Amino acid sequence: MTKQIPLSALELAVIVQNSDAGDAIKRTVETAQHIEQLGYKRVWLAEHHNMEHIASSATAVLIGHVAGHTKSIRVGSGGIMLPNHSPLVIAEQFGTLESLYPHRIDLGLGRAPGTDQLTAMALRRNNMHAAYQFPSAVQELQQYLSDENVDSKVRAFPGEGLDIPIWILGSSTDSAHLAAKMGLPYAFAAHFAPAQFQAAVAIYKREFRPSAQLQHPYIMACVNVIAGETDEEAEQLSTSLYRMFIGILTNQRQPLQPPVPNLNRYWNPEIQYAVNQMTACTFVGDKESLKQKLSVFIANNGIDELMVTSYIYDQEKKLRSFSILKEALS
Fold first, then answer.
1. 3-class SS at 247?
2. In angstroms, what CA-CA distances link 325 with 88, 227, 300, 302, 311?
3. Where does the Luciferase-like domain lie (predicted)?
4. pLDDT tens for residues 273-291?
5. How far is CA 323 from CA 88, 157, 225, 253, 318, in A?
6. 44 in any annotated domain
7. Could you list the residue range(s) of the whole structural domain that residue 37 is in?
8. CATH number of domain containing 116
9. R_g over Cα of the chain
10. Residue 239 located in a structural domain
């Protein structure tokens, strides 16, 4: 029997072929509204920069827009790349979001730039060592959001004293140590960096120390899921996802492309191997196939919540994929 765990979604507001950022954001809102009706727990938006076909760069703005067009689903960042920002600014932004949408905002934090090094320099200006200061920046952010900051000369308004859950994000083992040490929930990006997933989970569970926010380890894994009415339909829909990864690896990025009958003309064995390594935590199939595959994944890794991202070209097929997944895990 499938272990019943919460189901959530990650959105990047990906621009599809013959579309634009406005349409991508509209599709993201539709997705959030749809999965809210299905009973998904949360939808997160990811910070990326200098990526022509992703519309989630102003992440806090987009979180507010999605939260304003939904009613109950939690909306948050997956994540905010904290070294790109002043902790005070993030405390104020998410304090504002929490004030607008009480008890619905999550703050997931990552240390990567979410972009290339040249763009990171444009974002961070003279603070290119910010990633090394990530642990202290998280603590500074926690301080701004705490009641104990009342006597400080620098305070976050709104933000101070608000209950905004902080998560640590990771795509390697580095942040597993930090999440465990700080007693914070841990979200792993297995949807594009699965190689160190199991090692990171083991570190986090072994080193976890209870905190005011969290008494026991809590692990959320993000994976790719492409669901169809049949295995064959799902396999064809998944070609859009694989073409996206091919574009990343060959530096020939495009808007999300329509599905194709097969991928033979788009990759050689070397590229295919690299794509398969990056997408090892990708689950494609109909309801029964997904139930079987994901039950094994959940049981083997002892995760507490599953977050999925679904790169599907056709919006109706994408929404249906989230429905099929919900049915598979119910």
1. helix
2. 38, 7, 19, 19, 14
3. 20-258
4. 999 999 999 999 999 999 9
5. 39, 39, 12, 29, 9
6. yes
7. 7-231+282-328
8. 3.20.20.30
9. 19
10. no
